[in-house]
Amino acid sequence: MYNDEFILRTFQFFVNIHFESALIFLVSAWIPLHSIIKNPLYITRESSMQ
Description:
- The protein has about 50 residues and is an all-alpha fold.
- The protein has helices spanning about 5-40, 40-50.
- Keywords: Membrane, Transmembrane, Transmembrane helix.
């Protein structure tokens, strides 16, 4: 049997890792997402130009 403190620490460890990576992912994805949301015609305009 595992003791509760070990489970809690392991859980917190994984939560911290996933939270940090999710935060980094959101920050890195925010800029292109924001530009797409702000200007939805940008993609169609770029593809029609070519």
